[in-house]
Structure formats: C-alpha cells, structure tokens
What does this fold into?
Amino acid sequence: MKILVINAGSSSLKYQLIDMDGENVLAKGICERIGAGGHMHGNTADGRKFDFDVEMPNHTVAFQQVKAVLTEGDCAVIASLDEIRAVGHRVVQGGATFNKSMLVDDTVIAGIDRLRDLAPLHNPAHLQGIRACQEVFGPNVPQVVVFDNAFHSTMPPEAYLYAIPYEYYEKYKIRRYGFHGTSHRYVSARCAELMGKNLEEIKMITCHLGNGSSITAIKDGKVIDTSMGLTPLDGFMMGTRSGGLDPSVVTYLQAKEGWTPKQTDEVLNKKSGMLGISGISSDDRDLAKAAAEGNERALLTRKMLWYQIRKYIGSYVAALDGVDAIVFTGGIGENGQFIRADICGNLSYLGVEIDNAINAKALHGVEAEISTPASKVRIFVIPTEEELMIARDTKAIVEAM
It folds into this structure.
C-alpha cells in the first residue's frame, strides 16, 4: 500500500510518498511560496533530485505539481495517482474534540474548522491541504487526519488546566494541549522497543528539540505532562519563540510599546527565543559557530537553552517519581552532541553517565544508546519519524474500513 503523507502550511506543502509494504520512503519534497510565486524541491529514494520555480497560486495547483513530479519526468516514482491508496494529513490542533486519528468526512472537517481560533496559523492551512487533495484525488481516495496534540490527551486536569478562572476553560477551552505528539509517540514506542520492555513499564522523558521544541513526561504508557501549552509558544525558549514567561512581561511591554495583540504575537513567536537573545540566528548551528568564535550573546543563548531544558527534565523527574529513560530527538536533539553532553552532565544526581565517544557519533540520523552500562538512567538518541507514524495510522484506519 502506497500512502501520501501531507503537511500543509499557509504557504507551503510538504509531502512524502511511503510504500507501507516495507515502510520505505519513495520520494519526498516541499512546495514553497504558494500564493507568492512558487518553488518546489525534493528527491527520490534512489537519489534523483529536483529543484525549480513554478507558479502555484493555491494549494490545489501545488497538489497538481506534486502529482506531476511523482508520475512524470526524470523523478517519477509511480505510473499514476491510482497507485496511491490513501492520504494522511498532519493537523496541529485537534483540541479536546479529537483524541485519535480520524477518517476525513464533513463532520471532521467542520470540527477542525471550529478549532481554528486555537491554531489560527495552522488549522486553516491544513484544511486548505485537505480540500485541495479532495479536488485532485477525488472522493474515492480516503484521507486520514493525524492530530499533533492527540498523544497528549491522556494528561490529567491537574496538569492541563491553567490557574485562571475556571469559567474561561468552560467557555473557551483554554488549557494545555501540547504538540509534537506524533514525534513523542514514535520515539517513546521505539525507545521501549530498544529497551525490550512494554511502554507501560517505563517512566520516560522524551525531548523533541529543534526550531520548535517540547519535552514530554510519560508514565504507564500515558502522557502525564508536556511543555507546550494552549499553543506551541509555551515551554522553554526555541528558535524564535520566547517559551513561557511571566504574563506581566507581556502586559508591561504592551503598555510601554503600544503593541496590539497581533504585534505582541509577532514578537513572541517570531522575534524572540534564540534569535531574540543572540541577535544572530535562530539556528543552533550558527550559534555554535559564533560562540566558538567568542560571541558572548551566542554563548549566553546556548547556556540559557541548556539550562531551561535541564529544569524541565528535573521537574518531570519529580512528576514521574523517577525516570528510567530519556530520549533526544528533533534536529537539535539528534545532532547536538554538546547539548546532550551538557544536559546529561548536569543530571549526575540521577546517576546519569554517558559514553562520550558514542555520543559524538550519534549524529545525522544515527540511532544510539549513549548512556554507559553503569548509568542508572538509559539515554537514547532516536531520529523521529513523524511521517511514518502518520502513514501507519492512515494504513490502519483505511484497512479497517
């Protein structure tokens, strides 16, 4: 069974075509600048690449370009779209409405649309992708939506509620939802597999570290807490996001700078975090280079990030009443040997020991256990496979139809 996995943004469309018979990625790519010109690039599993400008005024035209690349020319991997059995979509916000992956129908589409206020940048874009897909594939190709926050739906109220008047939870469903759930679900299951145990037997902390980052505490196979909140802005500092801060910082700056809610959102989501502190970049690779060259703000930025991650891990150890395993994933988590070494080096109270030689080699997609045999907590680097998780859910739902 071949499944097309889609992650649609407001002006982009990422895709992977996966053959589920061997769980092999046949091709992947991205359409960028949709509605503002258009550019497309990607590659096939056997190394063929494409990179070109093309006019894409909307997501339907972008899907037509995906169809053309997959079925025609030098980078074709299938003879026609008829070979694609189903389409799986990533949807950021399912709110409290959706706690599992769903087959797309009018009711599901309406439900995603009702949640647009909780994810104004994401849910409308996902709906554009779903509707464009319906236009290109027609009604006979089933579509499945996989919600980014569904894995976190097991959090208890004491973890997901905010200490504001309860009426606002009742009226507006303001609560912690969490994100990166598909990634946390994949790496936690893979970690349990590597440990030779059931997930239900392990107290685990999974760290998805990248331009957007979140940490999740898992106990008895269920999420009990996660760092992102009502939106992906909460938690610790990220590439351009501030992470959690004193709410009075927001109201103080609004009074001083005269910011509107939209301007405030722009600063906290796109101009803060690692970019805001360093003044250089939101990319940890750039900051590592600058820090090595003596840039003090770049060094400060990295120290802040590492410190905040250690604090979250420590708090989740308390919430879990101990920890058996810690997993690093995401762009920084998978490739940041120094951040892993710093974090683990400051968890000595837990009896954490890492093998520096193994840690140094666990880069660029290498899966590894980086803790020593003497370590009281097992530490893993596990490359995330969110698209594969979406494809697996899609396959299971379609086969059950």
Summary: The mean pLDDT is 96. The first strand starts at residue 2 and ends at 8. The chain has two domains: 2-147, 197-386. Residues 2-147 form a domain with the Nucleotidyltransferase; domain 5 fold (CATH 3.30.420.40).
